[in-house]
Amino acid sequence: MDSIVIHNLRKSYGKGRLPAVDLAGEYRIGKGEMFGIIGPDGAGKTTLFRMLATLVSPESGKAEIEGLDIVKDYRKIRTILGYMPDRFSLYPDLSVKENLEFFASVFGQSIDRNSSLIENIYCRLRPFENRMAGKLSGGMKQKLALCCSLIHSPSVLFLDEPTTGVDPSSRRELWENLAHLKANGMTIVVSTAYMDEADRCDRVAMMKEGKFLAVDSPRAIVSKFDRKLISVRSDEMFRLLNDLRSMDVVEKCYTFGDSHHMVLKPDARTDAGGIASVLEQDFGHRNVSVSEISATLEDCYMNLEDK
Amino acid sequence: MSSSSLGYLLLKETRQFVRNPFMPVVLILLPVLLMLLVPLAANMEVRDVRISIVDRDRSGMSMELIDRISRSGYFVFSSYEDTYRSAMDQLGKGNADIVLEIPRGMEKAVVRGEEVEIYIAANAVNSTKGSIGGGYLSSIVSDFSAGLRGEDGAVPLKIVPQYRYNPHLEYKLFMVPALMIVVIILIGGFFPALSIVTEKENGTIEQINVSPVRKRDFILSKVIFYGILGIFAFTVSILIAHFVYGLASNGGLLEIYVSAMIFLVFMSGFGLMISNYSDTLLQSVFLMLFFVLIFMLMSGIFTPVSSMETWSQYVSAILPTRYFVDILRSVCLKGSHFSDLTFDFIMLSVFAVVINVAAVITYRKQN
User: Fold this and answer.
1) Does the beta-carbon distance from A91 to B16 stay under 8 Å?
2) Tell me: domain B49-164, CATH 3.40.1710.10, correct?
3) ipTM
4) What is the rounded distance in angstroms from the CA atom of residue B270 to the CA atom of residue B179?
């Protein structure tokens, strides 16, 4: 059964401006699926979340969550939905415990009833139970926010960039918690800017300018990458980038960790060796290392606009 | 569901309010300081007008006139000068507020039955002191001259002004009701508006919006909580008004309270309206301040409506504060009752209903 069905959903802010979200066609997210959305800032991720979370109404099209229409049945949806916005939005002047109690009573629950779901997250917060939420560290805030959005055992959980500004160990913990929730049958939709996180999702949607450009499992997206991808290093990395970009055969070149990745034009008749000799002889680069590699999710993401 | 959700929303408001190191202090200090300090500082009563006297007659009659002036209690003698010019010097230097010149040969002329001119020059830089002091002085002089004619046998016609309801022309009695209004404006209007906009800024309003809590309950929790605070602050200020300034000592508490409630409802509706149109605290404070200044300056809180320009008198008719001021002054000073103030109460209620309806409608439109 599908947990979320999106059908031609569209929303724009103000006339004459490009729609923030413009999803043509139908997208389905299954029950218990972990669905990732990646895309640059301004791609419309947050607007999409806010529409699905019944905070803004769509301009046209429709969407259903657990069979409930996001416009007509918004009050019912709010009882089965957990939403963690992209910025910390709990009461900074209430303590950790008071925040949790408040959101529990908002949903007509008591803390104990749902403790199994949040226990392994909350146990880390318990030493700070009486601290004001505004005084917590970034990772702790995130844990508290997750607890508060899980307090009513939602069947669908929306997380808008949950790991932005969170240290690596807290990031890992969060994803372990999400895996645990998913194992309990919760549908999770998460947006992220980190490709290693997107790799953990069952399926990933690459979003740009309000549209889903590709929706598939990370592995399938990577395997569909059909261009020749080459990794290049030399002693002068900065000059190298400009030189590579000036070459005719190169369609796109970008930094990738400690090397440069470049995509060759489809009709380019050269290979790693050819590039290396051009760099050494024509441009005078030294210690050049060039190798053909297979694409990662990030390479696919970087080449989004070309498709 | 509705009543129980109001319960925990109110609990949350209380916790946040008590936790705040600033707000509870403001709630108590604001009415106390406003009510105790401002009437003392903003006293427009004219007392201790400094007078410089040029007595060129030096007769028994001139002595008697000067004695009359000193006994009135409004004047302090700053200097006796020999010439009009040196007295004007004192005025120019700011040592005197008023100069009185008694011409040479006044007594003789009066005995002969001739007209005598006495000069009064007042420094009008402090216009109230100058004009009211000058008024006092000329009334003392004309009073005196009437007494002189009376000695001739003819009974002089004397005008006796009687200032009704505020017999001593005390500015405090005019000021204190106005300050009670300021207390309600600040606490009943600013507090809920700022609290809602803070939730907008923190993003907490989103968390409430994705939950099953109804917006109606959320808004209601703000209105109720800050309404109670407003009543508290108003009660503090009315206690001060009563026990310190002796206001409403002839009853009228019920009228005052009912009108304050209606006005409080208006102000909170107004605060909500402001919060609907502002996304940041800064915006809301400036918007609020703009309207509050108009409310305070154009509705007769500090200056009487009747002395305003005609066009601004029309403007004041659409300001709810004007009707509230009317009610408070009439009750406090004249001891009026509901039956005397029907029009004001109706107008105040109309404003309260209209603004709250508008606030609810514009709130809906925002989402």
Assistant:
1) yes
2) yes
3) 0.78
4) 19
